[in-house]
Amino acid sequence: MIQQTTQPTWGYGYGMARTIGRVTLGEDGYETLGPMVFTQVPASPGLWTVDLDVQGSTYIRYISARILFSNNDDLQAQAVVDPDPTVPPGSRLRVQIWDVAGGADVPADLTLDSALCIEVVVNQPGEPSFSLGPQIAP
Questions:
Q1: How far apart are CA 116 and CA 26, in angstroms?
Q2: What is the model's pTM?
Q3: Cα-Cα-Cα-Cα dihedral of 41, 47, 51, 52, to 10°?
Q4: Inter-residue contact 54 to 36 (CB < 8 Å)
Q5: Distance from first CA to last CA of the chain, Å, rounded?
Q6: Distance CA 86, CA 78 (A)
Q7: pLDDT tens digits, the chain, 138 residues: what are they?
Q8: Domain ranges within the chain, ordered by starting residue
């Protein structure tokens, strides 16, 4: 998660965090890039849950779901906050992929070498902090 401490995040204001994650279907299965956990919902074509890199509840300012590449140019994605009461509000998304050429409400799965990209801007509660992580001793 990219945390902004001195600069506003794309006009959303100070104290926001912007995260981007991507899942790609390749020859060897799905590959995830970024700090999100993508999970396909069983027996529901094109439906995913996406767990965000947040602690507890957070206020989501912006959500974007895009198909970055596909052999089917008619694929589109839609993201909403997951209404499941068992997860903290704002910590999980539901994403549905649609084939818009197939008519109304036709769910579709990712095609080979296609990618689903999620971008989220959330409130970052608490004091902003920065860490370089573990360092090699001098």
A1: 12
A2: 0.77
A3: 170
A4: no
A5: 28
A6: 22
A7: 444 445 555 555 566 778 899 999 999 999 999 889 999 999 999 999 999 887 777 888 889 999 987 777 888 999 999 989 998 888 899 999 998 887 767 899 998 989 999 999 887 665 555 566 677 777
A8: 2-123
Alpha carbons 51 and 60: distance in angstroms, whole number: 13
Cα distance between residue 87 and residue 95, in whole Å: 16
Task: Identify the residue whose tokens are 């945390």.
Answer: 3
Place of tokens 């799965």: 109
Which pair of tokens denotes residue 118?
């999620």
Q: Among 24, 25, 56, 20, which Cα is nearest to 36's? A: 20
| Longest CA–CA separation in the chain, Å | 62
Q: Is the dihedral of CA 86, 90, 96, 97 positive or negative?
A: negative
